[in-house]
Amino acid sequence: MSLLIIRDLEVHYRTYTGMLRAVDGISLDLDRGEILGLAGESGCGKSTVAKSIMRLLPSDSIIKGTISFNGDNLVEKNEHEMTRIRGKDISLITQSAMNALDPVQRVGNQIVEAIRTHRKCSRGEARKEACELLELVGLGKKRFKNYSHELSGGQRQRVIIAMALGSSPKLVIADEPTTGLDVIMEFRILEHLRKLQNDLKLSILLISHDISVIAQLAHKIAIMYAGKIMEYGPVSEVLKQKAYHPYTLGLKNAFPAIENPRNELISIPGSPCDLVREIKGCRFHERCPFSTEECFIKEPEWLNIKEGHYVLCHYPDKAEIFQKLSQERSTWIKDRESN
Amino acid sequence: MRTSTLIRVENLTKIFPFKGSMLGKKKCIRAVDNVSFEVRKGEIYGLAGESGCGKSTLGELLVNLQRPTSGSIYVDGQEITNHRGRMLKEFRRKVQIIFQDPYQSLDPRYTVLGTVMEPLNIHHIGSLKFMEEKAIETLDKVGLRPPIRYLAKLPGELSGGERQRLCIARASVLDPGFLVADEPVSMLDVSIRAGILELLKKLREKEKVTILFISHDLATIGYLTDRIAIMYLGKIVEEGPTVEVIQKPFHPYTRALISAVPSPNPDVKRSEVKARGTIPDPIDLPSGCRFRTRCEYAQRKCSDMEPQLENVSKEHRVACFYPLSS
Predict the structure, then answer these.
(1) Which of A56, A69, B180, B295 could form a disulfide with B97 if both were Cys (CB 3.0 to 4.6 A apart)?
(2) CB-neighbour burial class of residue A194 (10 A; exposed 0-12, middle 13-18, buried 19+)
């Protein structure tokens, strides 16, 4: 059985203009020892998914559906029970976590604190373990006595990773773990995550707007758009020529690849729909070059096309034509002569 | 045909004083250190490097938002380094800048029309009617269509992509010959980025604008620019035609940077990144070659002497004593 099974998850936020459906019915599986990438543009709800697994949503938001972790439904847990799971079985590494380190505490002591919060052990034991963790993330135990201002951004992010691993979690949620870091540091952190995942048999939910990061690290990928998952499958299929959803195809066109610097980039016209208003039909139809009347009227169903590959589109049978046409600029940018 | 030079930079240096040293010894950060290069008319020139390498300072120096400590900048053969007053204002008609964050670089109380008309107002160009027409024409050009629908809007009502288009409109309404774009797409969503890059390309083709494109993202730079300079701790370490530099880097630092860039294709396996440690403290620079502390090929000579940019081919320059052969 999968470690994490999300079924029909809905999260609604209360806003001044009405209820905002940040996550609007998504289903996902994450196996043990697997890295699942969750990709999407800003505002698509990917971080909300992370927050709902950790149950860190604002108190006036509404959460529906099930999040089954290791057989327990997290949605039904109360705050007291969640405290025991949060940080222990599930750890969260966020984008700006490196700025969350205490400036007046040695980083080693902060790791010790993280370990002792969840486990009964002596200071000495925890200290020894903290040193091991610092070695594990490639900082070395000589960094134990450093303060956070003595470390670079990438090193601080690695301290956070060490803290996240301190409780030997089963699941690590990494929400944009390298955004804002320089490429060389990003490369090292990703390599570290991969190695740790391999050595410790961790499960990682890797959330990123950058499909290149997911392509290099994850086994499976879920592409999210406006609160729904549009496509979900193995990285080797979705990110290569075998994607089914026009949005996935469009997203791939928009990404520059350093090995082919002169490959043409094509943007997806328009912008994501307003999640406060009621959405009719497919939520991508306004920006989709292949949309028909059916897309406008009827919401597509979550289709299983083949083993482990799902898509939310009315026309999975036309995928081959889509794949071919999507590579041409004229498909996406029509009447508007340029831009 | 030889393309002519638009911007020529000679031995440009910018030193920021750094307060707070306890012993009273003055310390400083050499943000841009003795940099010389040329930007040709009509090209898109890329400036790449990690954070803190001085690429943004260099961009600001070129549009005179910072004054250089020493060195000279020539635009169209005319030295502009010490322009002040009216001369400076005249210069600013020809040179404009786009910033990274379109959420912070627009006045939230100015309408779209007001924002685009402001530069025309400042430079007293034409009648009110002419200014309005010019603003509308520019909005159309940057893809805010139909312009009528946008005129009365405030930046808060626009999406990120639209805001950046507005910034580009504001910068290009004076028909500048030279545009500095400092990380113009890094705050934007991926599906929108390509559109902005396309717009910059179009400005270059149709309006003959020369663009200095500053970014940490080598994949984007590789896509957009004609030539590229890689900066490290205030120095240009490699310069050349973009595709050549990316596919055949000579400097060990360039190679490390390029091999660290992830690819959206899961089949592309990255080779190991060969750069140890992290960027040294810019206050306390290593002697000789600045990259030597992280370079695996470093020899004795690298710490004794500082390598200068030298040609490895007609267009390609590298500052390294032991350039990589392939």
Answers:
(1) B180
(2) middle
